[in-house]
């Protein structure tokens, strides 16, 4: 049973993911009386990408009517949980963002939901901070696409992804050997098992509109063995943002891109340590 003294943790998963790889991390936190949530984000939800049979998806199909989901849809998914937890239940919340989920976490941590804002109004609960795990720390006004792509307008496809019939206008999916990038520190059987759970995503063009960096305590878990987002890039993103809005609390681990699978105990400990840092 969760303790009323502990904040609730809301996890924003990475692109191409489902909530499944975060199950053990959630179990560890919940064993220490911390409630957790990890909803499926629409941009990686095959049921919302018009791929036909999700058990045998066709990535060459046209986009759904109205277009593919975008960052606004992912943000709304997290906001629906935050508004219930904070506005209706008065809960304190730590948002955890993994990979692309860092963009979602930042965009969803709106001022009216932050604990310090609510305290000035005599209200209980609110977002107390953001914990980034090998995540995108993207400046306000930039999208995932605009931040990572070359500024000359060329289109760079990461080595572990492929696009299909519609090219940039369609869906990207992990390649058959992408387990070597996403799960490079798992054994081959486990890596292939988790690779089979990855989905698809459109290019993400929604610009970050919320500056949570300057308003909330932020922590970053640097993944030294990451082959999706190398540690040097992680460090550079954090340093650039810290110059503008203040230092992050930094943690490090030896894992690849998914410490929620390969360094689960340590990830849970770091999250709990950051909660204690905020409390003190």
3D architecture notes:
With 280 residues, the chain is of the alpha/beta class. Helix content is 33%, strand content 15%. It is built from 10 helices and 9 strands. It has helices at 23-31, 71-88, 101-108, 115-120, 144-148, 179-182, 188-195, 231-245, 259-262, 264-279; strands spanning 8-12, 36-37, 92-98, 126-133, 161-163, 171-174, 201-202, 218-223, 249-253. The strands form 2 sheets. Strands 2-1-3-4-8-9 form a 6-stranded parallel beta sheet, with helices on both faces. A 3-stranded antiparallel beta sheet has the order 5-6-7, with no helix packed on it. Strand 8, helix 8 and strand 9 (249-253) form a beta-alpha-beta unit. Helix 1 (23-31) packs across helix 10. It is globular, with a radius of gyration of 18 Å. The two termini are 24 Å apart.
């Amino acid at each position: 049973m969760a303790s009323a003294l502990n904040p609730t943790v809301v996890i924003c998963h990475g692109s191409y993911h489902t909530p499944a790889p975060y199950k053990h991390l959630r179990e560890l936190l919940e064993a220490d009386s911390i409630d957790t949530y990890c909803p499926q984000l629409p941009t990686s939800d095959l049921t919302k990408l018009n791929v036909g049979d999700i058990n045998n998806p066709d990535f060459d199909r046209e986009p759904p009517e109205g277009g593919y989901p975008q960052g606004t849809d992912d943000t709304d998914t997290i906001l629906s949980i935050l508004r219930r937890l904070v506005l209706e239940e008065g809960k304190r919340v730590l948002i955890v963002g993994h990979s692309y989920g860092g963009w979602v976490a930042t965009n969803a941590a709106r001022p009216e939901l932050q604990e310090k804002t609510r305290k000035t109004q005599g209200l209980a609960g609110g977002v107390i901070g953001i914990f980034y795990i090998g995540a995108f720390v993207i400046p306000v006004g930039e999208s995932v696409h605009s931040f990572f792509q070359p500024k000359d307008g060329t289109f760079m496809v990461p080595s572990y992804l492929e696009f299909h019939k519609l090219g940039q206008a369609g869906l990207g999916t992990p390649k058959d050997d992408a387990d070597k990038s996403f799960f490079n520190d798992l054994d081959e059987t486990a890596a292939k098992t988790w690779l089979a759970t990855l989905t698809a995503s459109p290019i993400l063009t929604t610009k970050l509109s919320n500056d949570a960096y300057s308003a909330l305590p932020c922590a970053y878990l640097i993944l030294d063995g990451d082959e999706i987002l190398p540690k040097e890039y992680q460090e550079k993103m954090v340093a650039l943002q810290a110059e503008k809005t203040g230092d992050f609390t930094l943690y490090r681990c030896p894992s690849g891109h998914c410490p929620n699978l390969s360094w689960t105990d340590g990830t849970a400990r770091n999250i709990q340590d950051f909660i204690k840092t905020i409390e003190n």
